[in-house]
Design a protein that fits this description.
Tyrosyl-Transfer RNA Synthetase; Rossmann fold
């Protein structure tokens, strides 16, 4: 009997530098589990990254390679998944154009993240408005069954689903309509300085986040300065957002419940609790930081991974792009 075909999963991140523990606990660690029994594609979306202007081209190249090294260091084995740079694969922008011609401008203007950027006075370019269409192309080009997303990306994925259904209804069944996959545990790590906000390295206060490459002293200092709550009891709860966030971090690394983490510090003060959290993070990031330095110091190895990933992704992308081109009426390309 033939084995059932593995479902295809695609997830991507902008190439904006070193990731935080929020990125690791909320996303990448879950991806590592998925690669064991799914066909996984992980594009490094450098084309999305240039929607934020101004930027330094040399820094973008450095960030792209760094992200690839971080992914591998976190456990995304390139022998078990397809890791590639978005701009190395022909078809992303081409499919985005086709999908854009089927996407009302009003749908893009209603995107919450786009409206937020306008309200914050960010420089707005056409690429920023078109961002969700390129995201749709990234996903549909590989006919993904599932897309791991955070709560803040659900609206974008809904637009992807709408675009896929619109093309299917117009030209006949072409795309799978992807389903969201939202991790249920440790999926939202908050700022150490403002536990009401998601942890983000775009925060101007560097004490608010922990990077995957932070050394032990940096980690200990940041957690020691983390905002806590009134009272002395170490327990999770809506009235203790600071303590709950630190428990979530510990829970994420140890993969045990918040309550089990809190039980370790019954009767102890916040200082002792913070020291315990810090050591868990130091131990958890140690192997990742060491492996990252090994990979980023071996450009030949990294190039080989990215080249093989782009070749595998290109074969898959061309199959779908050729199918879509025929559906929409383009003359077949000459060999």
């Amino acid at each position: 009997m033939d084995e059932p075909k593995r479902k295809t999963v695609l997830s991507a991140a902008q190439t904006t530098g070193i990731l935080t523990i929020g990125n690791y606990l909320g996303a990448i660690r879950h991806w590592v589990r998925l690669i064991e029994d799914h066909e996984c594609f992980f594009p490094l979306v450098d084309m999305h990254a240039i929607t934020t202007t101004p930027y330094l081209p040399a820094q973008l190249r450095k960030n792209t390679r760094s992200l690839a090294a971080q992914y591998i260091a976190c456990g995304l084995n390139p022998q078990k998944c397809t890791l590639f740079i978005q701009s190395h694969v022909l078809g992303h922008a081409e499919l985005a154009w086709i999908l854009g011609c089927m996407t009302p401008v009003g749908d893009l203007q209603r995107m919450t993240q786009f409206k937020d950027k306008i309200e914050k006075g960010a420089p707005i370019n056409s690429g920023l408005l078109f961002y969700p269409v390129l995201m749709a192309a990234d996903i549909l080009l590989y006919n993904a069954d599932m897309v791991p997303v955070g709560e803040d990306q659900k609206q974008h994925l809904e637009l992807v689903r709408n675009v896929a259904e619109r093309l299917n209804n117009t030209y006949s069944k072409t795309f799978k309509v992807p389903e969201p996959k939202i991790p249920s545990t440790a999926s939202r790590i908050m700022s150490l300085q403002n536990p009401g906000r998601k942890m983000s390295k775009s925060d101007p206060n560097r004490a608010s986040y922990i990077l995957l490459t932070d050394d032990p002293d940096q980690i200990r200092k940041k957690i020691a300065r983390a905002v806590t709550d009134s009272g002395r009891e170490v327990r999770p709860g809506p009235d203790k957002p600071g303590i709950t966030n630190l428990l979530s971090i510990m829970s994420g690394f140890l993969e045990i419940s918040l309550e089990a983490c809190a039980a370790r510090f019954a009767g102890e003060n916040y200082s002792s609790f913070k020291k315990g959290v810090a050591e868990v993070v130091v131990d958890g990031l140690g192997p990742i930081r060491t492996r990252y330095q090994e990979i980023i110091s071996d450009p030949a190895y990294l190039d080989s991974v990215l080249k093989a990933g782009a070749e595998a992704a290109q074969k898959r992308a061309f199959r779908m792009l050729n199918k879509v081109n025929r559906k929409v009426g383009f003359v077949e390309r000459f060999p």
